[in-house]
Amino acid sequence: MAKRPRLRAIPLGGLGEIGRNMMALEYDENIVVIDAGLMFPEEEMLGVDLVLPDVTYLAERKEKVLGFLLTHGHEDHVGALPYILPKVNAPIYGSRLTLGFIKNKLREHKLVEQADLREVKAGDVVELGPFKTEFIHVAHSIPDTTALAIETPVGMVVHSGDFKMDQTPVDMRPTDMARLSHFGDHGVMLLMSDSTNAERDGFTPSERTIGEAFQELFGQCPGRIIISTFASNIYRIQQALNTAARYKRKVAVIGRSMVNNLTIAQELGY
Fold first, then answer.
1. Which of 104, 95, 82 has the alpha carbon at shortest distance from 36?
2. Which among 66, 175, 63 has a CA at the least distance from the CA of 126?
């Protein structure tokens, strides 16, 4: 009697650590990959610039990889792609801003011509072999973030990506709980959820509270104000720019990644 194919969830990074997020789903002779992030080295990792997922398993089965499904554009979810594509080149599915960031990185590595970038938006459904994936809007610190609902031959898999239960996000688009509830009502076989700070009591405050803090600081400080943030935290940068404009303050953006990301976001209309 022939063995029935099984669904395998293969973590390649990101479990029990901050960064290097990468998960593969394999059914029969088909593989889809969720995210491809890097991790910045810990203090004791002297001489190490970046920490990448081990993709040996994928490289040995590269003809079975049907595509990369990306949740959002943060480095810990997409930063490893320039290092992985030469080993495993498959179509890359992501939102407009996510692909904008990726295209810039691939251009730096002279790989953009080799990449098959396919834009999706929340609500779109992508079919890759036995995997049928719906992209679902979730709130996060960067626009165009999505969760993934992946229909497989053995049941529904939901991958949350990074998300925040923010009822008053900067863009006024909270997580699409109605769509997530729909899949919950119809049965989810496996939930793979972001759990950052899950061990801490309480709630994460809305991103808008940062804007309120900016208002207070700009009102009290007549001199130069220095703001430090991740270059991909677009909503926080937007709030800083909005507050500076309100107080008629000039803004100087420093850092290559910061300048690149703001340029890309502006060109794409964010």
1. 82
2. 66
Is 228 exposed, middle or buried, given 0-12, 13-18 or 19+ CB atoms closer than 10 A? Answer: exposed
* Residue matched to tokens 């190490």: 48
Torsion of Cα atoms, 210 then 213 then 219 then 222, to 10°: -80
Residues in the chain: 270
Domains of the chain (ranges, CATH numbers) = 7-192 (3.60.15.10), 208-267 (3.40.50.10710)
Q: Token pair for residue 196?
A: 């950052």
Contacts of 10-17 with C-beta under 8 Å, sequence gap 24+, read 10/57, 12/53, 12/54, 12/55, 12/57, 12/58, 13/37, 13/39, 13/53, 13/54, 14/53, 14/76
Q: Is the pTM of this model over 0.85?
A: yes
Half-sphere exposure of 9 (CA within 13 A, CB side): 14
Phi, psi of 183 (to 5 degrees): -70, -35
Q: What is the pLDDT of residues 62-121, one digit of tens each?
A: 999 999 999 999 999 999 999 999 999 999 999 999 999 999 999 999 999 999 999 999
DSSP string, 142-206: SSS-EEEEEEETTEEEEE--S----SS-TTS----HHHHHHHHHH--SEEE---TTTTS-S-PPP
Can you tell me the distance from the alpha carbon of 25 to that of 60, in angstroms, rounded to the nearest whole number? Answer: 15
Residue 93: its H or E element: strand 92-94
